[in-house]
Design brief:
The protein has 119 residues and is an all-alpha fold. Helix content is 92%, strand content 0%.
């Protein structure tokens, strides 16, 4: 019976070693996965930033067209709406810049944590 117990203990120890190895791999994967998610988010922010720039350029073109409207009240109403849209786009741009800075800091931190992690 002593032999059976020893074999059972060995297999448990092997299982424990395997579990420890899996946990170690999981810890090493997390920064890379987080970095991948941050990179995807950064790419999305860049797309949004370009879209905001394009929309603001289109507002400038629209302002030229609105300038040709004969009715001053209608023209001013459109310009008021455009200023509101431009302000919203401007706030969005500022927000995206803040998000980009935070993501760059997170990427930098994740790079540093990978460097600092013992092998």
């Amino acid at each position: 019976m002593g032999t059976v117990v020893k074999l059972a203990q060995r297999s448990t120890m092997l299982h424990q070693a395997s579990a420890d190895a899996i946990r170690a791999d999981t810890v090493h994967l997390r920064p890379r996965i987080a970095r991948d998610h941050i990179a995807v988010a950064a790419s999305s922010c860049e797309i949004f930033s370009r879209s905001i720039v394009a929309l603001r350029e289109n507002l400038e073109t629209l302002d030229i067209i609105i300038g040709k409207i004969d009715d001053p009240e209608t023209r001013e109403a459109f310009r008021h709406q455009m200023k509101s849209i431009d302000a919203t786009l401007s706030l969005g741009s500022v927000g995206l810049s803040s998000i980009k800075r935070k993501m760059e800091a997170a990427l930098s931190d994740s790079d540093q944590s990978v460097i600092d992690r013992p092998a």
